[in-house]
Design a protein that fits this description.
The structure is a homodimer. With about 110 residues, chain A is of the alpha+beta class. Chain A contains four helices and three strands, in the order αβααββα. In chain A, a hairpin with a 5-residue loop joins strand 2 and strand 3. The model of chain A has no long low-confidence stretch (mean pLDDT about 90). Chains A and B meet through helix 1 and helix 4 of A and helix 1 and helix 4 of B. Chain B binds a DNA duplex (30 and 30 nucleotides) through helix 1, helix 2, helix 3 and strand 3.
Chain lengths: ~110, ~110
DNA sequence: TAGTTATACATAGAACTACAAGGTATTAAA
DNA sequence: TTTAATACCTTGTAGTTCTATGTATAACTA
């Protein structure tokens, strides 16, 4: 779909927080979830996602812990923090307002 | 409302293009339109808007011409170009998809 | 079993860019 | 007459992003 850089930046945080709100996940898995959920339209590069995850962790919106996949491979899992849930609610509200404004201007 | 930098960046272009799709306007006027439309939540600084308008003009999504206000004050008006309408349609579609994804993850 | 693909994480720094701050000028209002 | 509102513009920098690159293991395949 070739989303603009701005849209990718604006949507990545609420998407990640939303996914983690549904349950714990990990970097590589999040990329696949977003890919599947968008019917293949959104393909995040891993090198782009990890810095975002680190940034969100620094802000204490998410937290990480090391785990293991069924295969034995190690994975770094993330879960949502309280502050992250608050932020998610705020960003969802803002997304809705802007989305409504853009829709209204369509009619 | 204190929109995040990312959201401002991602929404400013479709908002401006949408407004110009409704009819010609000018920098200062667009700021007021957005302000009113958002119930005062969104207050763009003029120093932020003009560079965006110039950028959109460079991409030939909009074009400008000098005009006069009723008061006699000179104004630079902008109108939407064909390429700008195409881009607007695309961005609206993308906004909707992302908005839907974020909403779906809510339920 | 060697080679390739998929999985999985990480970071430095080049490249970009937004926007605050500062500038000019006119009209209206107090 | 001076302040506020209208109206436009640009530079510099402070900050950010994400490309490019690196490491490593598991799984598949030829």
């Amino acid at each position: 779909m070739g989303l603009s850089k701005d849209l990718v930046a604006a949507s990545s945080t609420p998407l990640i927080l939303s996914i983690l709100n549904k349950g714990e996940s990990y970097g590589y898995g999040i990329i696949q979830q977003v890919h599947d959920m968008s019917d293949g339209d959104i393909s995040w590069a891993d090198g782009m996602l990890y810095p975002i995850l680190h940034r969100l962790e620094k802000k204490e919106w998410i937290e990480s812990f090391w785990g293991k996949a069924e295969t034995g491979r190690k994975r770094k899992y993330y879960r949502l923090c309280k502050a992250g849930l608050d932020e998610l609610k705020l960003q969802r509200k803002q997304w809705k307002q802007l989305s409504n404004m853009i829709s209204q201007l369509e009619g």
